[in-house]
Amino acid sequence: MSDLHSYLEDGNTLQDYSVQRDSTIHIQLLGTYDDNGFRTDGPGYQPAELDDRTYQIKNAGNLYWFAEFLAAGGKGAEINAELTADITITAGWTWTPIGLEEDGGSNAYTGTFDGQGHTIRGLATAGQEGGLFWAVSANGTVKNLGLTEGFFTGGAGDCVGAIAGRSSGTIENCYSTCTVTGETGSAGGICGTTEGSAVLKNCYNTGSVTGAGTAGGICGSVAADTVRISGCYNTGTLSAPDAAHGIACCTGDVRYDTVVQAGSCFYLAEQEEGTGGKTAAQFASGLVAWLLQNRQSAPVWGQTVGTDASPVLTTDASRKVIRITVQDMTKGPGATELLWANAGRPVGWEEACTYYGEAACTTEVPRDRTFDGDTTLYAIRWAAVTKAPAANQLTCNGQAQPLVTAGTATGGTLQ
Question: What confidence tens digit (pLDDT) does each residue in 324-375 have?
Fold first, then answer.
């Protein structure tokens, strides 16, 4: 059948080999697997292929096999993997975090797990510490990965986070839209607890996080002042009896302003806050995407302004957000307004203006003007009038505008 494949012990198929002379080949078939990588003739998962010392994970079966492989013989070894496709976990399958073992032992991940911009959809744990990983070691890295539509539920005495329960390593360019629930301990949208010299960089969470002790949008508990968090945001809801914070909760003598890079992390709030709180409107406007990207030279963050509710991790140049600073002379010399737009896309300005109810206002900023980078504009509106200037008679888009004159009304024109 076209959707079934036989694999050898090294993860390759028979078609991967060629013979140049008479030979005897001893073959051990490991089973037959469907396109999701699950064995069709009994329990088991399709082995991931090894390419240049990195395991290639292309389906759910490869992912489950990789977890079992590390549990069986990967203790302390640097074992790398990368996703080659988006993965969907079959409904009803429970996930055991990478590093947890059947005998109750555990092993922090050492190596590089590169999602290459792909997503894993539908992971679900039940009463277990961790998330995708139990823990990431000081020499471990998880990057370029998205987790969606998952559910991570920790057990007694555990820390839970979508990417990992604990980390002293590096987690970067990752995001989660999953639901995270801690039955005890700390819960975080990305990581439950960070310690040592852990790094959380360019990550975001939009899923709900509930902790039995503490909850953080990115990290549930920071246990060392050598941890560093930067370029992250959270819009997910948070709940915990002891403490909850949009980015991270700090324990003991750990100071938030030491751990979290100033001005680089943001969280959803009802009103703007000096520590990084931004409103839903500010997230949607493109402001937060611009702030996240503004500190970095390589493209990391973007947003389709007017469509996306919040920033996304992307290198797509069409989603780059730029800042338009408008010196609006209608509101007086020096008055400014900030607009956020996508590079190379039209930037609009107020139109549909009237004076005494008559169409009367335009602007020097055309509706189809485009810009590739941050720009300052000087907008001067004019109005053809038939009556003397009066307050509250100039409106734009239905809103009354202050009437500012640089001269006097002459010849029926306000200049």
Answer: 887 765 566 566 778 888 988 766 544 555 555 555 444 444 555 677 888 8
Contact of 156 with 128, CB cutoff 8 Å: no
Spatial neighbors of 120 by CB under 8 A, at least 6 apart, are 63, 83, 86, 87, 89, 132, 145, 146, 147, 148, 150
* Angle, CA 343 vertex, CA 337 and CA 348 arms, to 5°: 45
3-state per-residue secondary structure call for the chain: CCCCEEEECCCCCHHHCCCCCCCCCCCCEEEEECCCCEECCCCCECCCEEECCEEEECCHHHHHHHHHHHHHHCCCCCCEEEECCCEECCCCCCCCCECECCCCCECCEEEEEEEEEEEEECCECCCCCECCEEEEEEEEEEEEEEEECCEEECCCCCCEECCEEEECCEEEEEEECCEEECCCCEEECCEEEECCCCEEECCEECCCEECCCEEECCEEEECCCCCEEECCEECCCEECCCEEECCEEECCCCCHHHHECCCCCEEECCCCCCCCEECHHHHHHCHHHHHHHHCCCCCCEECCCCCCCCCEECCCHHHCEEEEEEEEHHHCCCCEEEEEEECCCECCCCCCEEECCEEEECCCCCCCCECCCCEEEEECCCEECCCCCCCCCEEECCEEECCCCCCCCECCEEC
pLDDT at 242: 92
Give the pLDDT score at 154.
86
Residues of the chain with pLDDT under 50: 1-7, 349-350, 360-365, 381-386, 404-415
pLDDT at 325: 83
375 is written with which tokens? 């720009």
d(CA 382, CA 389): 12
Instruction: Output the pLDDT for position 4.
Output: 43
